[in-house]
Design a protein that fits this description.
The chain is about 40% helix and about 15% strand. By secondary structure, it is an alpha/beta fold. It is globular. InterPro entries: DgoD-like (IPR034593), Enolase-like_C_sf (IPR036849), Enolase-like_N (IPR029017), Enolase_C-like (IPR029065), Mandelate_racemase_C (IPR013342), Mandelate_racemase_N_dom (IPR013341). This is Mandelate racemase/muconate lactonizing enzyme family protein. Keywords: Lyase.
Length: about 400
């Protein structure tokens, strides 16, 4: 029997290598959203950096890194001998090569974050050259849309309620996460509860509410007793998960909290590489695991963590306090796994809302469509991006 192979499969089978010619970093500054940390970042600070991988085939891929642009530039200089001339159509192999040859410089730090952006960009290139979305390349699309939750920093009750109501009424969101701010930082359960009560009243009983204590803050003081008592209070307001309730290395306390808490326990945004996640999954420290694709090692690493979590019965929800390219990567991964209910979406961030030619739009039900176009399925608007990255033109749009 003769079987005719049609594009894009036939085209993919005959693609010549697309060699990496150079990688450009474009630090974003001027509109950096508050991060919640005690030593607050300023709008002009660099926290997120965009990556562009240029190939000799003329195709450019884009990624995002949750790291200061100065560190990204230094990381690219260190990694350059390893990635120059590599085939951009082999993202997992190239990313693993970068990891394996730099672990002795500190696995999980700047270089891992930089590799994350490179890896995302390589998947974008592979998709563009095969004509397939990243979701399809990862094995198939389980869904065509997913619910975003509007992610906001906590504030005083009245201010918090007004902001949430605005995003609900004008933005169309039906799921919300509030975090950091004064929560857990005043030694006052009454103050914490007042914020949660105001939030629940503002969004109504039908909207979903998640709470992020921000335990990775500098010198986080709240302990297991506080977290356990607070979890009981959150259950009274139908909070769907309690995130970062403890210091990020306190695995024993997380295990105890998960067993005691009436609400699901979430965490993992500061962890990197799959090896670090394994004990948290195997020992039952989390109900919900939250790797960040712009930190953890990229799409190649994140998908391994997501599948590993599935084996342990732990829910995967990507952490996404980053950029529109981070959202695009999270959307593609949301398509590629059988059990993904949400993606994170920063409320009011210029780096999410203001750098794409076609900004994200929620539908009438509060869902985001997952792009079914080649690669990440989004395109940077270099004119708008130039307001936050002086070298935006170097990123290109190919």
């Amino acid at each position: 029997m003769n079987v005719e192979i049609t594009a894009p499969a036939a085209h993919a089978a005959t693609l010549p290598p697309a060699r990496i010619r150079r990688i450009v970093a474009a630090p974003l500054a001027g509109a950096s959203p508050k991060g919640g940390w005690s030593e607050e970042i300023q709008p002009q600070d660099s926290v997120h950096t965009l990556i562009a991988v240029h190939t000799d085939a003329g195709v450019i891929g884009h990624g995002s890194v949750f790291t200061d642009g100065r560190l990204v530039a230094a990381g690219l200089e260190v990694l350059e001998p390893l990635f120059l001339g590599e085939n951009a159509l082999e993202p997992e192999r190239v990313a693993e090569k970068l990891h394996q040859n730099t672990f002795w410089m500190g696995r999980g730090g700047t270089l891992t974050h930089v590799i994350s952006g490179i890896d995302i960009a390589l998947w974008d290139i592979l998709g563009k050259m095969t004509g397939l979305s990243v979701g399809q390349l990862l094995g198939g699309r389980y869904r065509s849309k997913v619910q975003p939750y509007c992610s906001l920093l906590m504030d005083e009750p009245a201010v918090m309620a007004e902001e949430l109501a605005t995003f609900r009424e004008r933005g169309g969101f039906r799921a919300f996460k509030i975090g950091w701010g004064p929560f857990g930082r005043r030694d006052s359960y009454a103050s914490d509860e007042a914020i949660i009560r105001a939030a629940r009243e503002a969004i109504g009983p039908e909207s979903k509410l998640f709470v992020d204590a921000g335990g990775s803050d500098a010198h986080w003081n709240a302990n297991l007793k506080w977290a356990t008592r607070t979890a009981e209070m959150l259950a009274d307001y139908d909070v769907a998960w309690f995130e970062e309730a403890l210091r990020p290395d306190a695995i024993e306390d997380f295990i105890a909290l998960r067993h005691a808490s009436p609400v699901p326990i979430a965490g993992g945004e500061v962890l990197t590489r799959r090896q670090t996640f394994l004990p948290w999954l195997a020992r039952g420290a989390l109900d919900i695991v939250q790797p960040d694709v712009t930190k953890v090692g990229g799409i190649s690493e994140q998908r391994r963590i997501a599948w590993m979590a599935d084996e342990f019965g732990v829910t995967y929800v990507g952490h996404g306090w980053n950029t529109a390219l981070g959202v695009a990567a999270d959307l593609q991964m949301a398509a590629a796994f059988p059990k993904v209910d949400y993606v994170e979406f920063i409320g009011g961030s210029a780096y999410v809302d203001g750098i794409l030619t076609e900004p994200f739009r929620l539908d009438a039900d509060g869902y985001l469509e997952i792009p079914d176009r080649p690669g990440l399925g989004v395109e940077l608007d270099l004119d708008r991006l130039a307001a936050y990255a002086p070298n935006a033109r170097e990123l290109g749009t190919g």
